[in-house]
Specification:
Layout: E1 2-8, E2 11-17, E3 25-30, H1 37-45, E4 52-54, H2 66-69, E5 73-76, H3 88-96, H4 105-112, H5 127-139, E6 145-149, H6 157-172, E7 176-180, H7 184-190, E8 193-198, E9 201-206, H8 208-212, E10 220-226, H9 233-240, E11 249-254, E12 257-263, H10 266-278, E13 284-290, H11 293-301
Parallel strand pairs: 3-7, 3-8, 5-6, 6-7
Antiparallel strand pairs: 1-2, 1-4, 8-9, 10-12, 10-13, 11-12
């Protein structure tokens, strides 16, 4: 995409957006509600016509070349878009019959656990079962590009892992996978490249590692703890940065919940405990971990509700 613009009622939901997804890679498009990511992907799928800019999928225009693209592209919509009165197995067989060389339905059904509800109508499926059926329909035609909108929403842990394994397999087979998700751990685990979208623009792009800004020694980590709201975060940052350990930043995402980011080690945790003791503050749930994609996402897009 180059300079993509899409307006609704005179308001630009997508406003000059540039984005690229490569073959043999998982590209995650992240953003808060209303950021423009769904509209962006729908323009790629040919479901929306751009007001300006260019969109090319496999070198073709998704709108004017839709007939040529349909056999080569798989789409998993957020609401499934499936006939609710049909049985799950019938839906998948019907979709598979539209392709010249579909996947083996038995193997795909076993892979995603569809046999257990193949004779159940779509309207009676759980949310996670609908998602699995929608994913099977998106990949059954052996697409070169697949768009997955919230692919593991509503799934139990076992189903979620099966979906992740299938996404990795698609990538390894050379498919361009474009993924939208609100699950930051899903994006962090699967994505080769991430685009963060907000207010109709791409505000950050890169690999997960680049966005986390973690050096080769993985020294940038976080210490999380709960304590009384309103601590002197500047003083705590200075205390953590003693002995040449520069680069500490302390935030309070929610009242009484703190995140200290920096080169955490045993000495840093000891300095934190000593500072809290000197301040007469009793902390709870002190945990040490690395900075996550969710931390980056919230830093970029803010913590207020949309």
């Amino acid at each position: 995409m180059r300079g993509l613009v899409k307006r609704y009622g005179g308001r630009a939901v997508v406003d000059g957006l540039d984005l690229e997804a490569r073959a043999g890679a998982v590209t995650a498009v992240l953003g808060p509600n209303g950021a423009g990511k769904t509209t962006t992907v729908e323009c790629c799928e040919g479901l929306r016509t751009p007001d300006a800019g260019t969109v090319r999928v496999l070198g073709l225009d998704p709108v004017s070349d839709a007939r040529a693209l349909r056999p080569r592209v798989g789409v998993m919509l957020q609401d499934g878009g499936m006939p609710t009165g049909a049985r799950a197995g019938e839906v998948l067989r019907h979709v598979a019959a539209m392709y010249a060389a579909p996947r083996d339905l038995g193997l795909l059904s076993e892979r995603l656990g569809l046999d257990a509800f193949a004779r159940t109508t779509v309207r009676r499926l759980s949310g996670g079962q609908r998602q699995r059926l929608a994913l099977a329909a998106a990949v059954v035609g052996r697409p070169e590009v697949v768009f997955l909108d919230e692919p593991s929403a509503g799934m139990d842990p076992q189903s979620r892992r099966a979906v992740w394994d299938l996404v990795r397999e698609l990538r390894d087979d050379g498919v361009a996978v474009v993924l939208t998700t609100h699950l930051m751990d899903e994006a962090e685990d699967l994505a080769d490249h991430v685009h963060v979208v907000d207010h109709g623009h791409v505000i950050a792009s890169g690999t997960v590692r680049e966005l986390l800004a973690v050096d080769e020694r993985d020294r940038e980590r976080t210490v999380r703890f709960d304590a009384a709201p309103g601590l002197d975060r500047a003083a705590l940052s200075a205390a953590l940065g003693r002995d040449g350990a520069d680069g500490w930043a302390v935030t309070e995402p929610e009242p009484g919940s703190y995140v200290a980011s920096g080169p955490a080690d045993a000495r840093a945790v000891a300095r934190l405990a000593a500072w809290l003791a000197d301040a007469g503050v009793l902390a709870s749930r002190i945990t040490v971990g690395r900075r996550t994609l969710e931390d980056v996402f919230l830093d970029l897009t803010g913590r207020h509700l949309r």
